[in-house]
Amino acid sequence: MSAVDHRLGNEQAATHGMTPGTQVMERRVAPVAVNHRRAVLRQLKMSPKDLDPIGRGYLDQYCRVTSKVALIDKWIEQHGMIGADGEPAAALRLYASLVNSARMALAKLEQHLLVDAPVDPSSKLQQYIDAQSELIPEDEQPPVTLVVANLDDDGSVSA
Questions:
Q1: Long-range own/partner contacts, residues 76-79 (CB < 8 A, 24 or more apart)
Q2: 159, 149 in Cβ contact below 8 A?
Q3: What are the distances in angstroms from CA 9 to CA 43, 47, 75?
């Protein structure tokens, strides 16, 4: 391969935006990541303020990696997976790794959101009752009724 062919290959790599350490990569990834972030937050019915710094970090990581996958997908649609020389596109070397990174980042974000999710006390109580009822044979289970009561300002109980 001559120096000219090598240089042309690098220019082609820059068109999909995945050449490491280039401004081209950041200019292409950032807007896609911002749009993806908005879409994810909209689907979750959340705003960025609802996330703590760790959650925002997981969301940012997921959106940036997913945007890189989307850019490679778009480039492959336009140029094909296999080049004229019969070799797979160079971006495909990154593809599986990026998809796996996106999967792991989404799992971390999901886990983080579930840990911080507010828990309804009555549902937690019902889960405990259900778990206990599984330990007792059916014919020995006492009837269970969940009653939710409120305390008034004077300390009296109202249903």
A1: 79/12
A2: yes
A3: 39, 41, 14
The CA distance from 4 to 23, in Å, is: 22
The confidence score (pLDDT) of residue 138 equals 65
Single out the residue of 73, 83, 76, 71 nearest to residue 24, CA to CA.
71
Residues in contact with 126: Cβ distance below 8 Å, sequence separation at least 6, in sequence order? 146
pTM of the predicted structure, to 2 decimals:
0.57
- Estimate to the nearest angstrom the gap between the alpha carbon of 84 and the chain centroid: 36
CB 129 within 8 A of CB 123: no
What are the extents of the domains in the chain?
A: 3-116, 121-158
Give the amino acid at 17.
G
* Structure tokens that stand for 65 in this block: 């990696």
How many Å separate Cα 32 from the centre of its chain? Answer: 15
Interval 118-139 mean pLDDT: 66
The runs of H, that is alpha helices, within the chain are: 3-15, 23-44, 53-79, 92-116, 121-135
Rounded Cα distance, 159 and 141, in Å: 25
Task: Output 1 or 112, whichever has higher pLDDT.
Answer: 112
Taking only the tens place, the pLDDT of each residue in 92-117 is 888 889 999 999 999 999 888 887 66
